[in-house]
From TrEMBL:
The lineage of its organism: Bacteria, Bacillati, Actinomycetota, Actinomycetes, Streptosporangiales. GO terms for biological process: isoleucine biosynthetic process; L-serine catabolic process; L-threonine catabolic process. The keyword Manganese does not apply. InterPro entries: Ser/Thr_Dehydratase, TrpB-like_PALP, TrpB-like_PALP_sf. Gene3D superfamilies: 3.40.50.1100. One of its GO terms (molecular function) is L-serine ammonia-lyase activity. This is Threonine dehydratase. Residues 4-84 form the Tryptophan synthase beta chain-like PALP domain. Its cofactor is pyridoxal 5'-phosphate. It comes from Actinomadura namibiensis. Keywords: Lyase, Pyridoxal phosphate.
């Protein structure tokens, strides 16, 4: 599965999978994958902080970004896993203030 490696606020999701990595094969058929933009991730980070006082890294807020952007159909209860706090203070400040 070729993955283009690039710069992103969600650096934990930008690819760089080692050859022979089994993760894509394990996920295929078990989960739906959606893409989110850095702008959508910034919106999720702002929502987490302003509404709940929570800090997450970009990759850790990707699930919430997809929900807030309407990219996941919501029926019934939904769980979004938030993880990580591996974000520098300057990157986090930019995420909170940039549109």
């Amino acid at each position: 599965m070729p993955v283009e490696v690039g710069d992103s606020l969600a650096d934990g999701l930008v690819g760089n999978l080692e050859p022979g990595c089994v993760t894509p094969g394990v996920l295929r058929g078990h989960v739906d994958l959606v893409a989110v933009t850095d702008a959508e991730i910034r919106a999720a980070l702002r929502a987490l902080f302003t509404a709940h006082g929570l800090v997450a890294e970009g990759a850790g807020a990707a699930a919430l970004a997809a929900l807030l952007a309407g990219k996941i159909e919501v029926t019934g209860r939904v769980v979004a896993v938030l993880s990580g706090r591996n974000i520098t203070a300057p990157a986090y400040a930019e995420a909170l203030t940039r549109d």
